[in-house]
Specification:
Length: about 400
């Protein structure tokens, strides 16, 4: 017998006389708009194909339910992480594609290695699978939430269990976040244990939610990260560093200019010129939409600013005054000399050189301009002999 819209194959099986003691195989086939749920009766199973041995008074029912998968088909992105002590070996990124039949394919990315996963959700929205790689078995439990358009779950390996959270990529007629977002990965100023300057980040967000992130970390590392925007305006950011022994890990939130802290891990590498001892730090990004100026406009709205550089093996911080005229920044007073500034109008990025007091060769720097009213500022970094310093622009009028 059947419950719900569906049939049993071979055709004509229901109601026929079967031989006791003989083995039979049947297949439950859902009708339009329905999916197979389970077999109940004398024999139970969650698989559509059922093999059984006929016995007296045997009863079988193939149960079908309305297809729940249409509501949550699509592409999902997110992260998985342990509750505490996150390291490059126990947290990473996740990407899934769910079909309207409940099947999925995807990958976990851990330590720079992609671990393929696939399977199918039950009508209740639950699936479990596993993958073996890196000498470990990763058991993956996934639970889909159609109402909130997310997938929760766990990734268990050895004695550790990581929480997995993925959201559907932005879908809609109009994407309010599409365009360029320019920002700073805020540094501590003090450069003894880690880079003191601000890292740079520029996001290019497409109307369909695809994101390209150009990142320049404050130790000089440059990255291009391909990720995606979720339905609630978040961008999961995970990328391995140092061949998987380090990482960037966390979320950027485009609903708010200041994002939640994310993790920057640099492992010990005695061959590195900058911070060979490594570090693990939480840093916050500050991201703002950026509109390229017209030919008659300046990239930002201030006329003059303080330019402050410090750390990076400089003896003391140096404060200078600069002015902005016709989208050109010019030094008018202070300890620096030979300031060269190049502004890229399309995204607000800045590069150039300056000459510190007593120095014989110019120092190169990189920075981003933040563009919004009433706040406009800029920040970046430069590399000294063996420390990374900061480069800050603080407007004195708007």
């Amino acid at each position: 017998m059947t419950n719900g819209l569906g049939s049993i194959r071979p055709a004509g099986f229901t109601g026929t006389q079967l031989e006791v003691g003989k083995r039979y195989s049947v297949l439950a086939v859902p009708g339009s708009g329905f999916v197979f749920s389970n077999w109940t009766g004398t024999v139970s199973s969650n698989q559509p194909t059922l093999t059984f041995t006929m016995q007296s008074n045997l009863v079988l029912a193939a149960n079908f339910v309305s297809n729940p998968f249409v509501a949550y088909q699509g592409d999902y992105v997110g992260l998985f992480q342990v509750r505490s002590g996150a390291t490059p070996t126990n947290c990473g990124g996740v990407a899934l594609k769910i079909t309207d039949k409940g099947a999925y394919t995807g990958k976990l990315v851990l330590g720079g290695v992609a671990l393929p996963i696939s399977g199918a959700f039950s009508p209740a929205g639950v699936s479990s699978t596993s993958v073996r790689s890196l000498g470990r078995t990763f058991a993956v439990l996934l639970v889909v939430d159609a109402m909130d358009k997310m997938v929760n779950g766990t990734v268990t390996f050895g004695n550790e269990s990581a929480t997995l959270f993925a959201q559907r990529i932005f879908q809609g007629a109009t994407n309010p976040y599409a365009g360029t977002h320019t920002g700073l990965i805020l540094g501590p100023g003090n450069d003894d244990a880690s880079p003191g300057g601000d890292g740079l980040i520029t996001l290019s967000v497409s109307p369909n939610g695809q994101v390209k992130a150009a990142v320049a970390l404050a130790d000089g590392t440059t990255l291009t990260i391909m990720t995606a925007l979720t339905q609630d305006g978040r961008v999961p950011l995970y990328t391995p560093l140092q061949a998987g022994s380090g990482m960037l890990f966390g979320y950027l939130d485009l609903q708010w200019s200041k994002t939640p802290p994310f993790l920057w891990v640099k492992k010990t590498s005695l061959r590195d010129k900058y911070y060979p001892q490594g570090f693990t730090e939480s840093r916050t990004a500050y991201l703002l939409p950026y509109t390229p100026p017209t030919p008659s406009q300046d990239a930002v709205n201030w006329d003059s600013a303080q330019l402050i550089v410090g750390g990076g093996n400089l003896a003391v911080p140096l404060t200078n005054t600069v002015v902005l005229t016709n989208d050109q920044i010019r030094l008018v007073s202070g300890s620096l000399s030979n300031l060269v500034v190049r502004i890229t109008a399309k995204d607000g990025s800045v590069s150039g050189t300056f000459l510190a007091p007593g120095a014989k060769t110019p120092t190169a720097y990189k920075a981003n301009l933040l563009q919004t009213l009433p706040l406009t500022s800029g920040g970046g970094f430069f590399l000294g002999t063996n420390h990374a310093g900061y480069f800050k622009l603080v407007p004195v009028n708007n």
